[in-house]
Amino acid sequence: MQSDCMAIIRAVTGMCDSLGITVTAEGVETAQQLSLLCAERCTEIQGYLVTKPRPAQEIATFIRDFSGTIRRDLFRVDACLDPTSISTAQ
């Protein structure tokens, strides 16, 4: 990742951490991006790494199915430490 991008990520996550608010990174597509974001204390992600875009009528089913799968590990610190354990988006 480019150094200027990392500087922006560090500034935003640092500010949010200081203010006690949640940080959500959008457009996360790779395990490498997830690992970098976790190292910078990003607390939530969204993007192709989690799932492809879905029609509104599929969202409730996706959330129900997602909550019972191993993919919950995407949001745990140990997954950030070992990004090779992350499967690709459904």
Q: How does this model look, in words?
A:
This protein has 90 residues and is mainly alpha-helical. It has one domain (3-85). Helices cover 43% and strands 4% of the residues. The chain is built from 4 helices and 2 strands; from the N terminus they run H-E-H-E-H-H. A two-stranded parallel sheet has the order 1-2. Strand 1 (24-25), helix 2 and strand 2 form a beta-alpha-beta unit. 13% of the residues are buried.
Set out the fold topology:
Layout lengths: L2 H17 L4 E2 L5 H9 L4 E2 L13 H8 L10 H5 L9
Parallel strand pairs: 1-2
Strands of the widest sheet, in order across it, are 1-2
Low-confidence stretches: none
Morphology: globular
Q: What is the H-and-E element order?
A: HEHEHH
Average pLDDT, all residues: 78
Q: What is the number of independent domains? A: 1
Largest sheet: 2 strands, parallel
| Portion in beta strands | under 5%
Distance between the termini: 25 Å
Tell me the structural class. Answer: mainly alpha
The total count of strands amounts to 2
Q: Give the radius of gyration.
A: 14 Å
Number of discrete helical segments? 4
How helical, in percent, are the residues? Answer: 40-55%
